[in-house]
Amino acid sequence: MKIKIAKDLLKIKAVFLRPDEPFTWASGIKSPIYCDNRLTLSDHEVRLDVESGIAQIIRENYPEAEVLMGTSTAGIAHAAITAHLMGLPMGYVRGSAKDHGRNNRIEGKLLPGQKVVVVEDLISTGGSCIDVVDALREAGAEVLGIASIFTYGMAKSVERLGAANVKNVSLTDFDTIVEVAAADGYIAEAGKARLIAFRNNPSDESWIVK
């Protein structure tokens, strides 16, 4: 599955690998990768691969799941489609509570004690998805874990998820993307080491060839 999803993401250009012309993140960090998993929604075949894959992850790793909760905003559509495939209820968690109406942060029906899986599109440092898990736990949910499309596998996210006692299972990951990209000619074989060096320490720009 990891290889199949990696090929899908590269094919529709949801993932760009550009070690010779780095992207700049909002934080200012130079990055050889740009990932936009929203593009998976625009391709029927890839969308089916992704949502079927997320459903498979949930069945195999979180068989007790009762509710799916998407992260706002990128995880909402994936949670909705996967919940439809699985015959489960879904909702989503806002980045912050509304300042009007019922002031909800969690949208959709959620009962205390229900077993929840968070559906996320991308995990980088892990901070935003842990915030969602915390909100669900505060509402009384039992969060079984996260099902995500892609993870960078950065040490910071692994440490944060571990400290928060949060399990994540991803359809594919950075290392698989890099291997597939090199094998299929998206990047030169020599670029693999530079990409892995970035993943290992994003703040160290020594991987950039001047």
Layout of helices and strands, plus pairs?
Layout: H1 2-11, E1 15-17, E2 23-24, E3 30-31, E4 33-35, H2 44-61, E5 67-71, H3 74-86, E6 90-93, E7 106-107, E8 115-123, H4 127-138, E9 142-151, H5 155-163, E10 168-173, H6 174-183, H7 192-200
Parallel strand pairs: 5-6, 5-8, 8-9, 9-10
Antiparallel strand pairs: 1-4, 2-3, 6-7
Description:
By secondary structure, this protein is an alpha/beta fold. It is 39% helix and 22% strand. It has 7 helices and 10 strands. The chain has helices at 2-11, 44-61, 74-86, 127-138, 155-163, 174-183, 192-200; strands at residues 15-17, 23-24, 30-31, 33-35, 67-71, 90-93, 106-107, 115-123, 142-151, 168-173. The strands form 3 sheets. A 6-stranded mixed beta sheet has the order 7-6-5-8-9-10, with helices on both faces. It starts with a helix and ends in a 10-residue tail after the last helix.
